[in-house]
Amino acid sequence: MSRDMSHAAHHTEQNPPAPRRKAVANLWTRWSRRHGHAPPPDDAGARPPSEAGAEVAPGIEDSVLWRMRTTVRDEPGSLAALCTALAGLRVDILSLQTHPLADGTVDEFLLRAPGALAVADLRGAVTAAGGSATWCERADAHDLVDAPTRVLGLATRTAVDAAELPLALRQLLGRCTIRSLPAPAAAEVPAEGVLEETGMRLRAPEGGVLSIERPYLPFTPTEFARARALVELDARLGPRVPRGQDVLTLSAGDDITVGRAGTGDLEAAKAMHGRCSAETLRLRYHGPVGDADRYLNHLLSPRYGRTLAVRTATGRMVGLGHLLWDGDETEVALLVEDAWQRRGIGAELLGRLVTMAAETGCESVYAVTQASNTGMVTAMRGLDLPLDYQIEEGTLVITARLDGAPVAGRRPRGERIGRE
Asked: I need a labelling partner for 351 at 20 to 30 A (CA). Which of 73, 85, 170, 187 fits?
């Protein structure tokens, strides 16, 4: 069964068949091993200076940006003591946010420090000045934007496109895992949500629950309030998908359009399923063909990712491409109606989906398929990106590492695609 179908089934089935549970558990175990969240001790959790995260300030040689968070007593002079300690290390404070707690205050700094300053020395000085539970990681130029401006920008993105909500939450809260739980879980979460140290649960706009975890750093009440405000904004605005489409011409001369799709396109998607052969549906969904329609409402929902649809000049849907937020991973999946296969449509959809993933900061995307699905395998190879192949119980998982590599962008209106 495909990862995206298991992702959808998680919200619609209480007891999936045992083989399916085993396959999903194996995949989650492997992905969990490969993508942990807790940074190693000392400064190993920060990106090396050679990477984009370590910024050298213009005009200042050998300097590094750091994000630092520490807890201090809520009493006069505590902040002054911290500032004095940092000044003694020639550390410049670029910005400061305070997060009040019941028995203290969490101070979050953006610092510019000498490149030779070890993180252990930075922490030691802060501890000596009264700070506790001090956490540091390398920062980059994006952190120079002040918090109110950043939050307003995230709210704007969420207002325009419902699919932006999980991405906006990740950018707001840093490295975290976001999962959607089915509607029955909402009965256990009060309307105001639940904050529990390194996790929070919020009622999702579609009726389920958003579970957000960040094991390496506890959430503050301020972060919880900001996350809740974004979710409430999304709920008030309701489902929405940006409209607009590109017109392309296939090598055979047929015009097609490519644009976003949502739950309002459910009937058109079901009709396309009805025109697909059983083999095409099997290669796409890896399960009983009769189950395919059951997952469409989930796959088309902007709450769980983004969907692109290909339509003919008459408006008939002939292809779908999905970009699905899967915890802290991102999945891509394609379906092209039989009569429209081998015309470049799948490659076009995949290139656009990967471009979307790169624009949202995803480090990689994966596709779950079968070795016999030569169309999907060829499309992934055509991305010209580093690929990783793994077999799980007869299922092929292909991961493309984005690594900032250029990917296909939008083609000019009317440009031909596919083989001549």
From this structure: 170
